Amino acid sequence: MNVRKLLSLFAFLATVFALVAVPSPSAQAAPVDDWNYSANTGATYVKALGSTVSSDLTAATAISGGPARTSSNSTAAANVTGLLSIGAAETKTWATKSGGNIEINSWARVAGVNLLNGLIKIDAVESTVTTTGKPDGTSSAVGNHKLLGIKILGVNLPVDIPKNYSVNIPGVAAISLNATFHAGTSELAGTRSWAVAVQLLKPRDGFNAGTVIIASPVNHYLQEAVPAANAPRLGGFAYSSRIQAKVGTQISVVSDPTAYTGTPFNGSNGTTLRNSTATVSLPGIATLGTLTSTSTSSRDSTTGNADITNTNKTVGLNLLGGLIKADAIEVTASAKLVDGKWTQSMKMTTVNLVIAGNAIPVNVSPNTSIDVAGLGKVELNKQGVDAGKKINRIDGLRITLNTAQAGLPVGAVIEFAIAATQMTTA
Predict the structure, then answer these.
(1) CA distances in angstroms from 40 to 102, 106, 137, 191, 219, listed in the order given
(2) How many domains does the chain have?
(3) 228 contacts 391 by C-beta, under 8 angstroms
(4) 214 and 67 co-located in one domain
(5) Can you tell me the distance from the alpha carbon of 379 to that of 262, in angstroms, rounded to the nearest whole number?
(6) Of all helices (H) and strands (E), which one includes residue 41?
(7) Which of 193, 224, 255 is the last residue of a domain?
(8) Which residue, among 163, 164, 169, has the nearest Cα to 151 in the 3D structure?
(9) Same domain membership, residue 238 and residue 214
(10) Among 43, 217, 286, 407, whose Cα sits 20 to 30 Å from the Cα of 90?
């Protein structure tokens, strides 16, 4: 695989919130024997810049791999105060194969959409998006989002919203409606689609300019499955922090994974993929210094051998006003497949890790658990292995709250320094 092309397209795919079209590459496609895929569908998504939490995909469904798969989900309601509220939502994501074609489908229905405290109202949204990969190496996407009873304060809208339609609420927000963008080559292709995407032009209700709200977000990826003698499809990731909570019947709210790096299906040809972030602040919860995640992987199309090494280093951690501090936490998850035999290893090291005033050893034992009064369960060097599925994962620091903290409810999970690998064989 051409890693430069892969990175360029990842950059396109990562621009979830760009409200302009991205032209497809004009390079001639090469034949493809088979496609791998990854896809997800949600009811809403919020990236709230500078705030404590964002809302990840709600009513989320996701699939990945090669064989045909289906995932469905639903939720009664979701709310992010000041930004969005919705009623009942359902999503479904599925893939089918016919001959050399692969077809990825997303469907979503969301009722009672209210954005920016009523500036944008929609009775119901119904979304269908299909991405198709063909044996000749070409791919295409078709998307349609029905916006029933849509009203935007001060904006005259057509009865039927055209594809990729954009409007502004002057001085408030840029808005993209019924949008579907597709780009890629036979090596890697992707589709981004949404019913409504709103980006704040200036601070509003405590949220910074640049905050983005999306209704019915859809993400599809296709990658050439390079023929290999029993070679696995690769996977895995590394990231620095993630916060997940659940309040009553409301769906999860999270701070998204920071400094996230993923392992490509076909590997990176030994090239190290890297994501670094200078600093992260989660007000009242944590401040983090330099965050760095890497993924290095390869597979041999002749022998079927493969290897993955994913790492994360989180520097300058200060959690809950100094209750937990560390100069650095570093984790590594590695795996190899050699002549059909899978082996794996995981490792964690810390520098000056202190929990509730107690110093923690540099090489803390795997699966160490500490109960901290007034906080909850703290797990260190948490390691999990599923040899049958060729998966391993290490969580450097994982906290499950048994008391409410910094606006997070009991049961909220706070993670730091995560790495994992996966190999899927036929």
Answers:
(1) 16, 8, 22, 11, 5
(2) 2
(3) no
(4) yes
(5) 24
(6) strand 35-41
(7) 224
(8) 169
(9) no
(10) 407
Q: What is the DSSP letter of 14?
A: H
- Residue-number span of the structural domain to which 45 is assigned: 3-12+30-224
Half-sphere exposure of 205 (CA within 13 A, CB side): 14
The tally of CA atoms less than 13 A away on the side-chain side of residue 312 is: 30
pLDDT tens series, the chain, 426 aa: 333 333 333 333 333 333 233 333 334 455 666 787 888 898 888 876 654 445 656 777 777 766 667 878 777 777 777 888 998 889 999 999 887 788 999 999 999 999 999 999 999 999 999 999 988 888 999 999 999 999 999 999 999 999 999 999 999 999 999 999 998 876 778 899 999 999 999 998 888 888 889 999 999 988 776 655 567 888 888 988 888 776 654 545 556 677 778 887 778 889 898 877 767 777 778 888 888 889 999 988 788 899 999 999 999 999 888 999 999 999 999 999 999 899 999 999 999 999 989 898 888 999 999 999 888 999 999 999 999 999 999 999 999 999 888 778 888 889 999 999 999 876
On the 0-12 / 13-18 / 19+ scale of CB atoms within 10 A, 345 is middle
54: in domain: yes
Q: How far is CA 5 from CA 1, 11, 184, 220, 268, in A?
A: 8, 10, 9, 17, 11
Q: Are residues 216 and 246 in the same domain?
A: no
Question: Do residues 308 and 297 touch, judged by C-beta distance below 8 A?
Answer: yes
Bridge pairing between strands 165-169 and 173-184: antiparallel
Map residue 6 onto helix, strand or coil.
Answer: helix
3-state secondary structure of 383: strand
Q: 265 with 223: CB under 8 angstroms? A: yes
Q: Give all strands (DSSP E) within 87-226, no chain letters.
A: 89-98, 101-115, 120-133, 139-148, 151-152, 165-169, 173-184, 188-200, 212-215, 218-224
Q: Closest Cα to residue 195, out of 159, 158, 165?
A: 165
Residue 34 per-residue DSSP state:
-
Rounded Cα–Cα distance for residues 95 and 97 (Å): 7
Asked, for residue 20, whether it belongs to a domain, the answer is no
Nearest alpha-carbon partner for 349 in 311, 318, 377:
311
Q: What is the DSSP letter of 4?
A: H
DSSP state of 419: E
CB-CB contact of 250 with 212 (8 Å): no
Within 10 Å of residue 384's Cβ, how many Cβ atoms? Answer: 13
pTM, to two decimals: 0.61
